[in-house]
Amino acid sequence: MERYVINGGTCLRGEVEISGAKNAAVAIIPAALMVEGVCVIENMPQISDTEMLLTILRELGAKIRFLNRSTVEIDCTSVRMQDAPYDLMRKIRASYYLIGAMLARFGHAKTTMPGGCNFGVRPIDQHIKGMTALGADVDIKNGFVYADTRDGKLHGARIYLDKVSVGATMNIILAATLAQGRTIIENAAREPHIVDLANFLNSMGADIRGAGTDTVKINGVEKLHGGSYAIIPDQIEAGTYMVAAAATGGEVLIKNVIPRHLECISAKLRETGTIVSEYGDAVLVKGASNLRKVNVKTLPYPGFPTDMQPPIAALLCVANGTSVITEGVYDNRFKYVNELRKMGAEIQVDGRVAVIEGGRRLTGAPVLACDLRAGAAMVIAGMVAQGTTVIEDVHYIERGYENFVGKLNALGADIRIVDFAEPGSGKEKIISIG
Ligand code: UD1
Fold this sequence. Notes:
The two termini are 18 Å apart. Helix 5 (125-133) packs parallel to helix 6 and helix 6 packs parallel to helix 7 (192-203). The protein is of the alpha+beta class. Helices cover 30% and strands 26% of the residues. It has 2 domains: 2-19 and 233-432, Alpha-beta prism (UDP-n-acetylglucosamine1-carboxyvinyl-transferase, Chain); 22-230, UDP-n-acetylglucosamine1-carboxyvinyl-transferase, Chain, CATH 3.65.10. Strands 21-22-1-23-24 form a 5-stranded mixed sheet. The chain is built from 14 helices and 24 strands. Strand 15 and strand 16 form a beta hairpin. It is globular, with a radius of gyration of 22 Å. Uridine-diphosphate-N-acetylglucosamine (UD1) binds next to helix 1, helix 5 and helix 6. Residues 23, 26, 93-94, 122-127, 163, 165-168, 189, 306-307, 329-330 line the site of uridine-diphosphate-N-acetylglucosamine.
């Protein structure tokens, strides 16, 4: 029952180092299952989603050891097909990558339906369409996904995705890497983590071209070999610190980033009056004293990321004027708005559109982290608000932000992690102030 207790009204100043990309790491760990050899993976973020996936691999027989805080060595040479721990798979969205990776390595897979943040119905029909086109029989029964090849091998195919899906694109890349023949994915997603997964697999001997465009071509190879790889910096973690710096009127140098991946976020922040300066592998964000309204529409990359929608909404609550956010990816990603309203925000939601009457003075309140990015939005709102905000369900936040509280406090935030393990006892335990 850990909660974040935030004393608001602070202004972020200083430097912060961005960790490896969550959405790349959660595909690269299952990809390591396909490698017969030792993979040394640098820039692995220390978050609960990666911890869970590493535990799943360990339980499947992988040898895993950390060489330092962010470098992990994974050896799946002697892994044999067996049931993966379902209680862990159920908790994370990215467990769907085990379907592609296990099919590629063993010719069959049994996983749970994926978990993760609840933004309404999140089907995996495009993943299944891809696996079926590659020759697998896929069946969903009692919350489990069963996938089997008839002759132990997948066969390359031409696959057109009906929906631009990050997960389906990456899952099909995984499965097709060890398939016989050539696979072409059309209408593929183009996110930076897709390029990162392809680069990881190519450095282990795969033959994947076109990742980052809407057509990805994969020539299947017999085997993957071991090697070393460094995961790209996390676009959304960086974007969250950019928005937090702007919302609090601070000045933060955000280091270890790829500024090109942040262009869509930088452009929107500049429209609010925030100054964003790009350097080689860093961006400097200087908040304006009078933030201006903006309209935002979330779209697949290179559009404005849906995962940045809740954080920018928190900022727009205090920007002057009326902003309109249109959610272009998910049907139901505004549940957290109720929590912002508890802090004094004025937001109307109609389907996929939220209208924010800005210029409000937010005040601290007890709120919930409804999901990972909604939780980040509550933290930003809590830092901007007058008074104390207590955020519950922070385990969502810890799925995707490495040392969030420590990094923010180093920038001048006032956040404590408090364990309310004994409700009513009056005994609260401060777990961390840094
Ligand atoms: C990934 C990210 C998530 C991000 C999202 C969009 C991971 C682990 N998660 O999620 O943080 O918010 O990309 O950038 O990388 N869809 C279907 N059928 C499918 C697959 C998707 O209809 O088979 C729909 C989804 O419901 C959604 C849209 O397509 O409306 C995009 O989803 P997708 O890109 O697949 O997101 P995820 O891979 O789940």
